[in-house]
Write a structure and sequence with these properties.
3 helices; alpha+beta; about 80 residues; three-stranded antiparallel β-sheet
């Protein structure tokens, strides 16, 4: 049995699962990585096209992934 951990209560659609996708952040279902969704957005793929190509995706999945990515981008890197 694998352990599924949500990223945080605010990110209830995003999980880290040991043994799935190398432990990367994924949407809990359909097991699409956060990186994949962010990459599609960066490539300019419209939301409607993403939803048509991945019928298991929901608009809230995409919004949550982008919010999660934005939160990660706000993290500070301290000089060493």
């Amino acid at each position: 049995m694998t352990n599924v951990e949500p990223a945080s209560p605010a990110w209830d659609r995003i999980t880290f699962e040991t043994g799935n996708m190398g432990g990367r952040a994924c949407l809990r279902e359909p097991r699409i990585t956060v990186t994949t969704v962010v990459s599609l957005v960066a490539e300019g793929i419209p939301t409607e096209e993403m939803l048509a190509d991945h019928s298991e995706l929901e608009p809230d999945d995409i919004r949550q992934v982008l919010g999660y990515a934005a939160r990660l981008a706000r993290e500070e890197v301290l000089p060493t």
